[in-house]
Design goal:
Number of strands of chain B: 5
Shape of chain B: globular
Strand content of chain B: 5-15%
Distance between the termini of chain A: 26 Å
Radius of gyration of chain B: 18 Å
Number of strands of chain A: 12
Strand order of the largest sheet of chain A: 1-12-9-8-5-4-3-2
Largest interface: A-B, 32 and 36 residues
Structural class of chain B: alpha/beta
Largest sheet of chain A: 8 strands, parallel
Number of helices of chain A: 13
Oligomer: heterodimer
Largest sheet of chain B: 5 strands, parallel
Helix content of chain A: 40-55%
Chain lengths: 298, 224
């Protein structure tokens, strides 16, 4: 059982790093549905999970970030939502070592509710429902509703999760650092986010993507001042740039990224992982920093 | 309300800034019915209003919902005013013609849609090719439609390189001087834009409008 309270009491939960870039590195063609590889190239997906476990991740996230029915519809795969998520969960489960965990990744639909977009709440709910059911049936230990920017959408995903299973649910939203502070593109503040998460008794919550580790530390300090709950922090490896060979790379390498980890823990983060631009190598370095941190204080 | 022209302009301007989509059209109609020239309404109410929306967004006071509502209200007013122009035998000169899309391999269209609606609200003609658009299709559409600008969106670090491929194709076909290329999207930076040889980069949908304007400044076809 994935008991967040117990797991974060004396240590930090280490999640994994990026999945998308690892899939592309493994040969996923641009424009191809990442979730379809759960069926077409299961050995590649399982291999990525394995490399994160070996790097020290206590939990990895399934290859199902875009696995809601609305996003899969972009590839004509909406009718396969349950199966692709079921397979995603099974794959991670199949390589999960004893005492480690599998989290079901649930990303945003990319569409907007009325009046910004043309979706109804029911349509959103129905997009998440088969995803949650597939992940739960496939054997995940918890769900991570991640990279959300609209609180309503996050809450609908949460509702789909709570109606389908009794797994612990974690939620992250993506904040930008604006001139007035940290906000999601829809204008959700850390205050509103934290209050809503606590009202809905979400097991753990926090932020991922977009922010560099330095800006993430600033956000976690604010969140810690608002809540005693287990805070999640998954920063990007800085900004992407074009490398000498013409490929894209992120500015923060494993050592540079891991250098921010002690400060991130001190700021209050209790569930830590990577986001865009992070690799198993980043996770390995982060794991070293985390154990050094706790060796020092214990 | 007194039927003074300034009241109409102010009310319309406020409706756009506040994103009152249902009120902007009727208010534009009222202004025209009161005898105001459509062009005057556009220049004195609509343009300053959408610029104010942009300013509020950049200041962090407005977010996506307010920005979209402002652009929609602007669109509603412009539809009325363009109709009024047409019936008086005039037409609004386009600010420029833009072919826009999310590059190949990338199905993300939130940012691209936002840029398209802000450009439209600001008087540009926009040809939206959607998402996952092949490199050749951008170039061929731009040629066929005699576009001024090709605007490329990418959300993924793996697909942002396709922005570079569009520039390369333009160069190889000797068309680089014919079109201005502007790029944007979450992972894209000013530096990246320079590195791949794009002409402009906008950090936000609001900036995209000013970038598009400045790229076409000094060229024919601009109504400023």
């Amino acid at each position: 059982m994935f008991d967040i309270k117990r797991l974060t009491e004396k240590q930090v939960i280490l999640l994994d790093g990026a999945m998308g870039t690892e899939l592309f590195r493994a040969g996923l063609p641009p424009g191809h549905c990442p979730e379809s590889w759960n069926e077409e190239r299961p050995e590649e997906v399982a291999g990525i999970h394995r490399s994160y476990y070996e790097a020290g991740s206590l939990a990895v996230l399934t290859n199902s970030f875009g696995g809601n029915a609305l996003k899969l519809a972009g590839y004509g795969l909406e009718s396969r939502t349950f199966e692709l998520n079921f397979k995603a969960a099974q794959l991670a489960r199949s390589v999960c070592p004893e005492g480690r965990y599998v989290g079901g990744s649930i990303g945003p639909t990319g569409k907007f509710l009325k009046p910004v977009g043309d979706l109804t709440e029911d349509q959103l709910l129905e997009a998440f429902r088969p995803q949650v059911e597939g992940l739960a049936a496939g054997g995940v230990d918890f769900l991570l509703i991640e990279t959300q920017y609209d609180l309503k959408e996050a809450l609908l995903a949460l509702r789909a999760a709570r109606e389908a299973c009794s797994l612990p649910v974690l939620v992250t939203m993506t904040f930008n650092l604006t001139r007035r502070g940290y906000y999601t593109i829809m204008g959700v503040s850390p205050e509103t986010f934290i209050r809503t998460m606590e009202e809905n008794t979400v097991e753990a919550f926090g932020a991922n993507c977009t922010l560099s580790p330095a800006d993430m530390i600033g956000l976690i300090i604010i969140m810690r001042s608002l809540s005693d709950g287990p805070l999640i922090a998954q920063a990007n490896a800085g900004q992407p740039r074009v490398g000498p060979d013409g490929s894209t790379l992120y500015e923060l390498g494993p050592d540079e990224y891991a250098g921010f980890i002690p400060e991130l823990i001190e700021a209050g983060a209790r569930v830590i992982g990577g986001c865009c631009g992070t690799s198993p190598e980043h996770i390995k370095k982060i794991a070293e920093k985390i154990s050094a941190f706790f060796d020092k204080i214990n | 309300m007194k039927p003074e022209p300034n009241n109409h302009l102010q009310a319309l301007s406020q409706a756009i800034v506040q994103g009152l989509v249902d009120e902007a059209g009727p208010l534009a109609e009222k202004a025209v019915a009161a005898g105001m020239k459509p062009l005057q309404v556009i220049e004195q109410a609509c343009v300053p209003a959408i610029e104010e929306v942009g300013r509020l967004w950049e200041a962090g006071d407005y977010f996506l919902p307010e920005l979209i509502a402002g652009a929609e209200a602007m669109k509603a007013a412009m539809t009325v005013l363009q109709e009024a122009l047409k019936s008086s035998g005039q037409s609004l000169k386009s600010a420029g013609r833009v072919v826009i899309g999310t590059v190949e391999g990338d199905i993300h269209d939130i940012g691209k849609n936002l840029v398209a609606s802000m450009l439209r609200a600001s008087g540009f003609e926009v040809i939206d090719l959607g998402a996952d658009v092949k490199v050749e299709r951008f170039v061929e559409t731009a040629e066929r439609e005699k576009a001024d600008i090709i605007a490329l969106s990418a959300l993924l670090t793996t697909t942002m390189l396709n922005q570079k491929r569009v520039v390369e194709l333009l160069v190889s076909r000797g068309l680089k001087d014919k079109f201005k290329v502007m790029v944007g999207g979450a992972p894209v930076t000013e530096k990246f834009a320079r590195e791949i040889g794009a002409d402009g980069y906008g950090e936000s949908a609001v900036q995209a409008v000013s970038v598009a304007r400045s790229l076409l400044a000094g060229r024919g076809g601009n109504h400023d």
